Amino acid sequence: MKAHVVSCPHCGAEVLKYRQPALTVDVIIHPQDAPGRVVLIRRRNPPLGWALPGGFVDEGESLERAAQREAKEETGLDLEDLRQFRAYSEPNRDPRRHTVTVVFSATGIGRARAADDAQDLGIFSLEALPQDMAFDHRRILEDYMQWTLRSVVPS
Amino acid sequence: MKAHVVSCPHCGAEVLKYRQPALTVDVIIHPQDAPGRVVLIRRRNPPLGWALPGGFVDEGESLERAAQREAKEETGLDLEDLRQFRAYSEPNRDPRRHTVTVVFSATGIGRARAADDAQDLGIFSLEALPQDMAFDHRRILEDYMQWTLRSVVPS
To answer: Which residues form the Nudix hydrolase domain (chains A, B) (predicted)?
Structure first.
């Protein structure tokens, strides 16, 4: 792994540290009563825009548990039929730092409401996504549509 | 994210740190001249046993580039037709610490030879894997067989 040097905030000494991408999950949630639609949140913090519900994975937590926790925190929904879709890892996909996301799909159970990092919440048709989407989430949903509608595996 | 406290190795001061799983890639490599078989390496360092070629992802490196780099370093093979299979993230899958791996499949081009972290290299039939396999790599290959032979998606 690549090592780089960080400074101790107390004594200023240099400490060698291995740097890795941050690991996140995102979930394509289909509401139980609107299975052809998808739940997006409007982000409270930069990068602004509409995004899939998701967030950072904790040590000791599987990707599936992280997906369930983040979906609950941001949308109030419980997830059923959680399935892995695909990982996205291009270094420039998040303007803050390199993050790798594993994307899931699921059915959302309950009443959706924005909470935590979500300023607003919307339920959109995959064919009419909002203009201002954050990260590479439009591309992810376009890949997902190709995959679900035509079984085309993203390259 | 969960935060925990680490100590500066120089002054001993306590620094808050967010902990995430480490991110790795592993590759199911089919040799070009033996497409029904798979390349495994015997690990030089604990946990010992046979394993898929792979390793840690660097910051600034996509998963696909990490897969190509690790395959080249450990087996000498270049990869073609690289495809994502699935991520594995159970916290106990690596006895050293929590690691999340994204597994790829690919065709291996060139002459395979053990190098770097690999003490030995073998080319195995999926139906006759070695007894002593490290991590959850036997389960990964069993899932992969189900998926390729019978299109069963792992749950």
So the answer is: 18-146
